[in-house]
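Sequence, structure tokens passed on for absentees:
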Amino acid sequence: MKIDVHTHINSTDPEQLENFVKTCEKSGTIACICSAGPRSDHEYPENDDTLKAAKQYPEFLIPFAFVDLWDKIDADIIDNFAEQGFKGLKCITPYYPYDHDLYMPVYEKAEKLKLPVLFHTGAFRPNKQDAVTRRPILKNMNPLNLDRIARSFPDLKIIMAHLGTTFFRKEASELIKLHPNLYADLAGNGSWMAIQPAELASWLGSCIMEVDSTFAGFKKLLLGSDAYFTSPGTMLDAQKYYELLLRRIGVPQDIIDGIMGKTAADWLF
């Protein structure tokens, strides 16, 4: 069974939910599902809808709660999420950079409750909310903002969504190699379809060995598709591309197995 750590609920239509779950079943995949809050360029359901869908299909869906990192936040909400049955958290479009003092109690709670946190990093399409909020976007979601969090909460499992995208891939790769508790996915058509084998091998390889036969950096990758309930086929496309990319690089099968689900399974079950 594979685990896709990065998929989105963007519809509450029962037929679309059923289609998504059928895709999971067909491909032998468990999907971590989450919303993305009110400031994205898509309409997203609420956390309650995420939890409802996951409870309807618990063998295939794992609920992650969207955490609204805005100008005020009560960290006790993380306790509530855990009590409700959420197994992880999703953060995107923060008011301040991810490592702002205001948000540190949130991560402290997540570490204590063993809830992994999925952070969007890198590119984010302009949308009508930008002129309303007038907040920094790329700067606030730069992967370097995860450095303080990883150092402060060494038992917190952190997933860097999109490996920083084209803006920050080099920095993102160095960070996941540096911090034992920091991982990344290649989610999104703009990420995994744009990466060439030689590039990924260079980013995740050793900085001092021309040929890195350990493939240690690849142990920090996780399967993530950025698939939506309305486009479940993206999940299948991502899996095919991941497997082709990793095999062309020559990543050993045991490390591929970790990327495709075994690593995340240790946190989620």
